[in-house]
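QUALITY CONTROL LOG
STEP: pairwise intake check
CHECKER ROLE: data steward
CRITERIA: each record must contain a sequence immediately followed by its structure tokens, with no blank fields

ENTRY 1 OF 2
RESULT FIELD BELOW
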Amino acid sequence: MPYSQIALDDTVRLLAEAAPEADQTGQFPWAGIRVVHQAGLLESTVSNRYGGKGGTLSDAAHILAALGRGDPSVALISAMTIFNHLGQATKSHWPDDLYRRLLAEAKERPLLLNAARVEPELGSPARGGLPATVARRTPNGWSITGRKRFVTGAHGLSHFLVWAHTDELSARVGTFVVPNGLPGIRVIENWKSLGMRATGSHDVEYVDVEVPAENALELVDPSVAQQDNRAHAAMNLALTAIYLGAAEAAQSAFTRFAHERIPSNLGHPIARTERFVTLSGEIDLLVSGAREIIFSALASTDGAAERLIRARLIAGRQLREAVQLAVRGLGNPGLNADLGIERHFRDVQSVLVHAPQEDTSILMLGRAAYQKWNAEEAARIERSPVIPVLKTA
């Protein structure tokens, strides 16, 4: 296990203390990120061959669920780095020297990595299409020009992983490692979301930003560069664990309020009333059920993308419903910022906004169901005995 449960609990407590202010200001949540960094969680999935703890995707999901209980915005920013280390552990797509230099930096300060893929014209790559952002050859490497949207943690990232096409005669598509702070980088502060406010998922513009040649990762022909939503299904499910954490925080706040609220006309906590016992049961069914769905699907070994996609959709819907039920059940107190449930309600609305979005995921399941039926029908026809037709005289 790449973490101590006691240290993780302390981290969650500190995140929860800083979360309300980060939500109100929308500023980059440095206080929370430093806590996660000091706990060593950003590098929890670094491979053993690099001296890391070798955390798995399931380990990452457990960490993200915990961080989500403290501050989902910090959890999401952290997830991008955690997943990138996991990617290197499984694919080794970074140049070794470059990656080792980044790990050395991580000992001194929070190393924050995130992909910059979505574009104003293109939209989400999960829906198909190739980037307009261009990487032009220079004597020493590449010059990057383009604009990206929804770059989570933009102000605090140490490196952007910019998806772009090259200006070569036979263009290629790939990811370019762009250190933050270089000339030509401009963060456009337009993140004004209902929830997840402290993620600072602003637009970022790159104008002739120069990076070394070795900072290009996985340059391939455009024909094989489309985002594979099925291949990313497990990681997308693990990301849902962040919102599981937010829903568990809402559940805890609901339960605490029910035990502390003692109306004078009742004479005992409302937690003893049948109505609140029933509400508590409904919330637990949805939240604890979502936890079981997420982690049992991640533990499955059949590798079926449809199972993972299905688990993400069911769990995500349950988490949204659970927090809505908690807010509705408490009435005015549930909408008060002091209790915190209204923040959890706003944050959890993003659970199925991440690519691939809900409609794309359902379309994938529908196509898979049709393909399965067609295959079974073809097999049935093939197995059916051929009955000869008798000729009459």
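ENTRY 2 OF 2
RESULT FIELD BELOW
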Amino acid sequence: MTVQGHERSRHDAQLIGLDAARFLAAMLVMIFHLGAYAWQAPLSTAGRALGGAAAYPGLFAWTWFGWIGVELFFVISGFVIAYSAEHATARAFLRSRLLRLVPAVWICATLTVLVSLAVGRMGSSRHLLHAYLDSALFVPVEPWIDGVYWTLGVEIAFYGLVFMLLLCGRYRSVGSVCAALGGASALFWIATLAIPGLTAVAATRLAELTLLRHGCFFALGVFLWLSLIKGATAGRLCVIALCAVGALIEVGDASQSFLAQMSRSESPLVPRLIFAGCVLMIAASVRGNAWLRDRLGARGCLLARQLGLMTYPLYLLHNVNGAALIHRLVTAGLPPYPVLLAACGAMLTVSFAVMRWAEPFVRSRLSAFLDRIGLDRPLVPARRPVPGL
């Protein structure tokens, strides 16, 4: 095999650890929303769907930190997008993001609005229709059909940055650009330690959409890719360290915010340790990817891939739909704890069905439409990237 062919095979190889990390992150978010947040934040979308039907105080110590899965998603996105965009054109990248994001949102938002209408506690039909359209059209500000849709605007902001680099033929600068992005975000969070009032700025939607709040997570993922795939340098390791500091400060701020919403008091040390441990496991899994693939075999790799693909519909579906199912079963007389397990199992099952059958159906039709409008042709010639830092 030629050197170029070897590099291409490495680029195309499935990263088992990232698929597992995606699924772990989605599970953390689901157990947080259904096991802790829905019954303690009654004004949230999950809280309205649950309607006070159940409470799980015995699980709080094991579920309250599950929101950390969202921060892990952002790190994984930074890694995966940098990894997948390396050999892409701007048009190919845009097409791949549309085919990845749009089908699941259209399917899951439709299911959620139908459940919300049936529940009758989620607002007027007019409000739900407005929220449904905003969600399906990826409008970056509220209302959304489910609170979890807030992350899509943040993800798309990062995708937009990568798209512009590809469009301008400057993907070689991805390291420098993301170092600036992550550094600005991390320095902002470090500044909040001296100026606590800055945390109010971080809580705004503008701070989210400009990546001021979460830029350090995406940059951390990008520099993990650069260091693990391209090779570690002193500059890259320094950026990783700076972004990690900013990320841990943000995790502490998010911890205080969620605990305040749930009228609880816990140490932010737990989510910080879990976040750090998960990032280290991601790095270790990338290093040992060949070993993992050999040990799992073809079937194990396929299962890991399916779990990874399930995470997007699972993330979009579990919150309102899972809480509504818990309400229905508990009010029918079933015990709350078995119902929670049943609801999680149901969300996993529906997510698998969406991934296995519904998404491919919608994606094939969207792909045909994109072909008809010319999105199958490259905008700019593909370039081999040059490491930025």
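INTAKE CHECK: passed for both entries
DESCRIPTIVE NOTE, ENTRY 2: The chain is about 75% helix and 0% strand.
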